[in-house]
Amino acid sequence: MNFTANDHRIPLNDGNSIPIIGLGTFAEKEIRDLCIPSVKIAIDIGYRHFDCALLYNNEHEVGKAIQEKIAEGKVKREDIFFCGKLWSTFFSPELVRPTLEKTLNNLQIDNIDLYIIEIPMAFKPGNTFYPRDENGKWLFHDVNLCDTWEALEACKDAGLVKSLGVSNFNRKQLELILNKPGLKYKPVCNQVECHPYFTQTKLLKFCQSHDIVIVAYSPLGTNRDPTWVNLECPPLLEDPLLISLGKKYHKSPAQICLRFNIQRGIVVIPRSFNAERIKENFQVFDFSLTDEEMKNIKALNKNIRFVSLPMWKDHPEYPFHEEY
Fold it and tell me: Of 94, 115, 204, 292, whose CB is crowded by the most CB atoms within 10 A?
């Protein structure tokens, strides 16, 4: 497909479509006040896809920025693609719709374009996002993900969400949903870590065989916070091949990374609150990598995750024990 800055949507298996590049909106507490201006800048540049989550504690700010841009006449609601996420403490079926409605209220919208299960691991139900006992032990919860999925299907039937998806699911967990008796709507996407050092080739092939789109989080790698990032992997954007290709095309290594995934049909949601980087990340529609260059970038794969979530590796549904 020949994507352009004005036309870069790809089809989903339910008849809807998703812009192939979006803005990730996760913000640490100290930079949360940058959310509103950053979202507004992104809209002015041409972004129409915004990746949000109740867990990020800034849905209200994202919604406010977009509502102000709608009021200005810069965009219409139907131009904007919102992705929201169901967090692990709300997997019990009776909690699913109220949690989605909270997100809709925060964003000031009547329905959301895409709503996904954020990770396949359930925690103790309630409003404490990271529940632990008095000894600091994580409080996991046993929920059948198929029951959660049925509650999401009911939300779609009620017109609260247009498309349903998942995130961080491995092949077996996807098959659990796909093989669910009475399945009404299969996932349109699986949002996972994906970049030149972690190309997800096997999972991509499996998802493509079921018409499920891969959405790449951390498409440029991550920060180097040792509390949750695997530092065994070197910084992605310092890779010599990515730097040399950047020089050839007068692009940054980040733009080479994003273009690599886009040419694989993978949606990218780079996160930034820096105006120049937000602009740079969107300027990926005016060049193409050759087949040989794509092959060489794919060969950079180290099969190591930056985001391995080791603190939850004892959860029965921890997804990363499997190869894919």
Answer: 115
109 in a structural domain? yes
**How large is the greatest C-alpha to C-alpha distance in the chain, in angstroms?**
56
> Which ranges of the chain does DSSP label H, i.e. alpha helix?
35-45, 59-72, 93-107, 145-157, 171-178, 201-209, 240-249, 253-263, 275-282, 291-298
The sign of the torsion formed by the CA atoms of 170, 101, 130, 218 equals positive
CATH of the domain at 110: 3.20.20.100
Q: What is the pLDDT of residues 223-234, one digit of tens each?
A: 656 666 667 778
Residue 6 inside a domain? The answer is no
SS3 292: helix
Model confidence pLDDT, tens digit, residues 282-317: 999 999 999 999 999 999 999 989 898 999 999 999
How many independent structural domains does the chain possess?
Answer: 1
**Residue 240 structure tokens:** 């010599």
Catalytic residues: 56
Calpha distance 104→253 (Å, rounded) = 36
The domain of 97 spans 18-251+264-315
Q: Tokens in use for 65?
A: 């920025």
Contact between 132 and 312 (Cβ < 8 Å): no
**Exposed, middle or buried, 223 (CB in 10 Å: 0-12/13-18/19+)?**
exposed
The response to whether 141 counts as a known ligand-binding position is yes
Backbone angles phi and psi of 43, in degrees to 5: -65, -45
Q: What is the pLDDT of residue 134?
A: 96
| Residue 203 domain flag | yes
The tens digit of pLDDT for each residue in 40-86 reads: 999 999 999 999 999 999 999 999 999 999 999 999 999 999 999 99
Residue 10 lies in a domain: no
Kind plus residue range of the DSSP H or E element containing 81: strand 81-86
